[in-house]
Amino acid sequence: MPTDVLPEGDEKVAAVRSMFDAIAPRYDLVNRLMTFGLDVRWRKIAVRSLALPPGGRVLDLACGTGDMCRELDAVGLVPIGADLSFGMLASARTAAPLVQADVLRLPVADSTIDGVTCGFALRNLVSLPPFFTELARSLRPGGRIALLDVAQPKQWVLRTGHAVYFGKVVPRIGGLLSDPAAYRYLPKSVAYLPSGPEMVAGLGAAGFRDVEHRLLSGGITQLLTATRA
Predict the structure, then answer these.
(1) What is the pLDDT of residues 130-151, one digit of tens each?
(2) Both ends of the chain: CA-CA distance in Å?
(3) What is the C-alpha separation between 215 and 80, in angstroms, rounded?
(4) Which residues, other chains included, contact 173 with Cβ-Cβ below 8 Å and sequence gap of 6+?
(5) Is the CB of residue 117 less than 8 Å from the CB of residue 58?
(6) pLDDT for 1
(7) Neighbouring-strand partners of residue 125
(8) What is the CA angle 98-102-106, rounded to 5?
(9) Is 153 in a helix, a strand, or coil?
(10) Which of 167, 169, 148, 168 is nearest to 217 (CA)?
């Protein structure tokens, strides 16, 4: 994946698929190291925030190697994983059913899903408005979403330290243990993300209510939750 100019459109889809195919074998190891294990806590918070009763069917989008699926299963929910990358699905460690799919065209009928989770993939999508619309189409009224992604702390000391760590240290860790180009792309990909208020407004326009935007761990991660109206 080019590291100087961020790809768009179909070029972005192909680049993201190729990148995640390449990093799949060591994806979990690098995640644990570069987040100091906090990624596990963030997924637990996301799953709890769904507030769904046991037995609810939850689509985990960009499911990767199945971390979120395992968290969903642990609380009695019924996960179904979907990912664009076949390499990720081949490396998955979950008993949940898995499907290779573009999250902008989900292979589910209207109003048939109780919940949707998505961990750290919003910035890898071609466009967020059609994604939010697709979530609303798939969810039953009252269904819940919990979407995680990276963020930038508001407090300037934390923001500066995070910029150095995310922009310099993380690419070195990823480059040593996995694909260097992929982890040089990672900090640059934050530029794709709209602001929190913009995403909140976008979810409201797509048919969601009770939309909430939370910053976690000092602002290095963000969580969007909402209910299908």
Answers:
(1) 999 999 999 999 999 999 999 9
(2) 38
(3) 26
(4) 30, 33, 34, 183
(5) yes
(6) 47
(7) none
(8) 75
(9) coil
(10) 148
Give residue 120's pLDDT band: very low, low, confident or very high (50, 70, 90): very high
The answer to whether 56 touches 114, Cβ cutoff 8 Å, is yes
**Of 113, 104, 117, 106, the residue nearest 146 (C-alpha):** 117
**Residues 6 or more apart in contact with residue 70 via CB below 8 angstroms:** 93, 94
Read off the pLDDT of each residue in 164-174 and give the average, rounded to a whole number: 91
Tens digit of each residue's pLDDT (9 = 90 or more) over 25-60: 999 999 999 999 999 999 999 999 999 999 999 999
Mean pLDDT of the chain: 94
pLDDT in tens, 204-218: 999 999 999 999 999
CATH 3.40.50.150 fits 9-228, yes or no: yes
Q: How many CB atoms lie within 10 A of CB 210?
A: 12
Domain ranges of the chain: 9-228
Tell me which of 82-86, 97-101, 185-189 is least confident.
185-189
Please tell me the distance from the alpha carbon of residue 95 to that of residue 113, in angstroms, as a whole number: 19
Q: Nearest to residue 204, comparing CAs of 140, 138, 150, 128?
A: 128
Q: From residue 94, how far is each of 68, 91, 182 by CA, in Å?
A: 9, 9, 24
Burial zone of 71 (CB within 10 Å; 0-12 exposed, 13-18 middle, 19+ buried) = buried
Tokens matching residue 104: 């902008």
